[in-house]
Specification:
Length: 60
């Protein structure tokens, strides 16, 4: 089973300059219409989790 990133929107600051987003090699973390989300390109590598300043990402 492949894990994927999940963003806790209450813990996330919803910033376009998201550090986790910048470190995603698959460009699976997107920012559109003022919201951040993880799309189907996520492979669950965990890079985003390690770089999330707010600890708002977990792999499920």
């Amino acid at each position: 089973m492949i894990k994927r990133a999940y963003i806790d929107l209450e813990a996330c600051n919803q910033s376009e300059d998201c550090s986790a987003r910048q470190h995603c090699s698959k460009e699976a973390i997107k920012f559109e219409d003022g919201k951040i989300y993880v799309n189907q390109l996520c492979t669950g590598c965990g890079k985003c989790k390690r770089h999330c300043d707010n600890k708002a990402i977990r792999l499920i």
